[in-house]
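Field notebook, page 153. I keep forgetting to write these up properly, so this time I am using the form the group agreed on. The chain and the ligand, heme C, are recorded exactly as supplied. Prediction of the bound pose follows.
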Amino acid sequence: MTSSRKSLVLAAFAASVSAAALLAVSRPAQGAGDDGPKPVAEIKDVMLAINAGDESLVSRLKADFAKDKLDDDGWEVARARASMIMEAGNVLFGLKPPMGDEAAWRKHVAEYRGCADQAREAANKKDAAAGKAALAGLGKRCNECHKDHRKSD
Ligand code: HEC
């Protein structure tokens, strides 16, 4: 590469870096007057779509780990499911339960999210036994949290 071309490339690089820096500064923090899309899910939505029933992400992931052998695509899907269960934890973190105090709620959510993290790690390592163990742990989080935060009907 000639030196003039080199400096052109460098200049273009520098320009893109400063544009990225500007963008980072000018973009408001999430939730601080940002007019992007707002979160819509309620706690019940997370429970019904992610946690409960045969079609939930948790059930699907359980079935993934129970399979004799997942191929590479199957592991990728398992990892994706675990990632989205972690995201469900992120959503829950910002929501207010119908009862119970905030510190206890955050602890329950963190434990739930931690189990999903272990499941994700298991999928990364293609380790079905670790995945099963992670989901068994996650299954125990349901009632633990419900005892503190779900109003009995
Ligand atoms: C971090 C706390 C927490 C964890 C963990 C949790 N839940 Fe819940 N769940 C709640 C709360 C709070 C409600 C009540 C929501 C409401 O009434 O608005 C609820 C409600 C539910 C409901 C009733 C939804 C409806 O139709 O009203 C089901 C079903 C449910 N959870 C299943 C599960 C399962 C299965 C798991 C575990 C895989 C789980 N939950 C884990 C907090 C939790």
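OBSERVATIONS:
- The chain has two domains: 1-38, 43-149.
- The domain at 43-149 is CATH 1.20.120.10 (Four Helix Bundle (Hemerythrin (Met), subunit A)).
FOLLOW-UP: compare against the apo run.
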